[in-house]
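Sample A.
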Amino acid sequence: MKKVYINSIACISAQKTFDNSEFLDEVIIHEDQVVYAVEPVYKDFIPPAAARRMAKGIKMGVAASKMAIKEANLKNVDAIITGTGMGCLRDSEKFLSGIIDNNEQFLTPTSFIQSTHNTVGGQIALELQCKGYNFTYVHGSNSFESALLDAKLQIELDEAQNILIGGVDELGEHTTKLHKLIHHIKEEKVTTNTLLESKSSGSMFSEGASFFVLANKKQESTYAEVVSVKIYNTLSQNEVSELVLSFLKENDLDIEDIDAVVLGNNGDFKFDGFYNELTSTIFNNTQQICYKHLFGEFNTVSPMGIWVALKILKTQTLPEILKLNKKETSSYKYILLYNQYRGENHSFTLLKTC
């Protein structure tokens, strides 16, 4: 089977990540339970007249996809695969509010049409005039990993040469209030610097879009090789360490071969135990990295962890703000990523430098 390479990356997040020439050179310290994406100038990617009719999630997705394709030096791709947890949430809320406000009568269909989860993938295809495979995964916090696994299999089986994959989610005002009511968002204000030390339930919520071009050939812009991806629905804390060892064994690796592990700690004391189980045992002597204190929590935040890992592999540098422990590593060859959300949708992703 062919190897799978990540040839370009693009990320719009709560940090200034859309400029690929930088790697968290200037960190924004957020001081709230809900933080919004730092957006690029959209007119550089989308005609202003078209952008005015687009929801925020669509604009972030289209802009990030164009950045990724440009860096990969491509005009088009063979397939577009997106992952999203909640889709175009603001238009969904707008349509549902319209049903209530208008007593289920005289509704305009625009918000409904733009609220479907595959709107981002469809809009990207229209922009590129891509008539190939186009699929959207809606698998909660495993949505992006499902897209990554799909693309990886297609490239390995020689069904495609270049595939654009991405994850997009946006914040919606009403849904954010609901998350606060059920304590998925912290009640007290937290900061970027204190989130991971929090001892309360919930996390800092955010939004963003991340896109990557996967290919079967290396090129000058290549960041890393995708060695393996595995996803699970539910696991107990006691099973995680055993499954990590099994996952590495399947790829002929030991714990000592992993130069860094990227973890999804989000400050929720009820569920960070999954990560603590690893950091205190099998990865006790491994460089530990966290990213959600910078980017917040949402269904497709995990590709921002991949963005972090890819930048580390490409630049061979690790910003201090990402370090969870004081372990020093001189070079990075293998990086393992582990993510879960509220005890469900566990994923392992293994990357290797080229």
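Sample B.
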Amino acid sequence: MTISENLKKFNKELPNNVTLIAVSKTKPVSDLMEAYNAGQRAFGENKIQEMEAKWQEMPKDIEWHMIGHVQRNKVKYMAPFVSLIHAVDSLKLLKEINKEAEKNDRTINCLLQIKIAEEDSKFGMDEADAAKLLSSEELKKLQNVKIVGLMGMATFTDDEKQISEEFQKLKKIYDQFRIQSRNFGTELKILSMGMSGDYKIAIENGSNMVRVGSAIFGERNYQ
């Protein structure tokens, strides 16, 4: 199937309340333009400078989502244009995003990454640290960032029960934080969980944003 056929299938299949982020990392601009011409407007990248190069070249009505781990010294490259940063895992990083957003006279939307997987390789905050950050006075001082939701990645496993339980855990945290977030002066609207291999399980457990790459663009070539 072509990229546009894959997208058509997803758009039919996904519930109306679920936003599809087409994960385009390592893919050439020609592939992204095929998706763009099929109506896709939200793309996810995991390397800031690759995303910046694509932003320079492509139409300016695209929403660019930074879905990978963020190095603080690279924030300046995406600050002029990024729509949503998915993987915020510290106050230090938020401060850097705020600083660069202010330079660009923007407010940048962010998701807190919560660690729900068992693997050590996965980044993210635990529930207690995230709650502390959301209610902190320091966050209130950051006028150019806005926490709009949570993101999480399940363990890379074939055990669907485990994946489902991890997503349920994040949904529970999200629901609790949403109630509390009114006191924090913010509103959580996005729960980003689910990728090509587990997006159906994620949607069953309350995800309203999925990050799908290989099921749209085909397998990646990392050579």
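B remarks: Residues 3-217 form a domain with the TIM Barrel fold (CATH 3.20.20.10). The mean pLDDT is 94.
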